[in-house]
Design brief:
Distance between the termini: 62 Å
Radius of gyration: 28 Å
Shape: elongated
CATH class of the largest domain: Alpha Beta
CATH superfamily of the largest domain: NAD(P)-binding Rossmann-like Domain
Structural class: alpha/beta
Helix content: 40-55%
Largest sheet: 7 strands, parallel
Bound molecules: nicotinamide-adenine-dinucleotide
Strand content: 5-15%
Amino acid sequence: MLRTIADRKKATPAQIALAWLLAQKPWIVPIPGAKKLERLEENIGGAAIELTSDDLREIESVASSITVQGARDPERLQRMTGLEPEREDSRMLLKDKIAIVTGGGVGIGKAIALRYAKEGAHIVVAEINEVTGQQTAKEVSAHDRHGLFVKTDMSSLSHIDAMVEKAVEAFGRIDILMNNAGVNKQLNFFEVTERDWDWIHSINAKGLFFCMQAVAREMAKNNYGKIINLASIGGKGFRGTSNIAYAGSKGAVIAMTRIAASQLAPHNINVNAICPGATRSEMYDTIIRQIVDRDKITEAEAIARIDVSIPLRRSNTGDDIANIAAFLASEESRNITGQSLNVDGGLMWD
Ligand SMILES: NC(=O)c1ccc[n+]([C@@H]2O[C@H](COP(=O)([O-])OP(=O)(O)OC[C@H]3O[C@@H](n4cnc5c(N)ncnc54)[C@H](O)[C@@H]3O)[C@@H](O)[C@H]2O)c1
């Protein structure tokens, strides 16, 4: 069709195409990629061609049936330009959702907070560490989302209530709670003290429950919510777990996830848990250092000892957990509730 018009106008098809582009938006100057001088001259000639309204209608009737490649082929675009293509709004899993991420300053929580922001959510970073919490909130803003840091000690009920209040004050509602904050330390059976027990359980189990309770009260008002609890395969009795008190606290998380899922289902609130195996993070690094000190081996040996025990031979990265956390926070998992899903390279089957 371009050739027919080109013959009529004594021009080339490329010139007709450029003349048509100019006729669409004359204030946009197309820059044709031409490596040869004669091609460039030919293209420039396109600006001198006048298309009648009949010509334009003829071209448009064919152009409207053409499928545009490029933007619809983001992987190809990335290969060609090296740039990560912007996600189209319609492809964002969590567009305009309001999410609280506890312990979002570093490690798994930070990876999840940034992934949620990339998926379109605004993030409340509920974190005890002011420096890292502020930093994550700042990085959320780089995704053009609101990042609000609220200093929160998850072992304190008054902190949790104040944090939830601030979140609602700032955003009007809460759609997603990512109950991630947790603590641990490498201790064998006989080393665990009452102090260790209370410290671990006050954050991993008690804080997690009261945060679910405070947030679910808000979610119930809107008859909508997604709660995701960070448990561990330790909570399912994984033999290689670092600490029996920690495993007990994560077992409590798995049990509470099921009970909360059934009691909150009438409010259209899904509650699920993620059970990571070994995951590279600050916590992982601390455990590695403790194994190094205890067993007098090198850091590389301690890491290899863990990796060799994993069927897929690799520990998780924060992104491995963020992927499933995004799925569980989205509508793609709308009929999944009460589940505790392992991400562990094949260490545990249930
Ligand atoms: N890393 C692993 O191998 C692994 C494995 C299984 C489960 N998990 C669980 O995943 C979650 C995240 O672990 P991680 O490896 O990223 O840990 P991490 O130690 O790297 O990060 C934990 C974050 O929680 C914050 N935090 C600690 N105490 C807090 C408190 N009282 N109030 C608020 N925030 C507090 C810390 O400041 C930090 O930002 C935890 O619940 C952990 O038990 C981790």
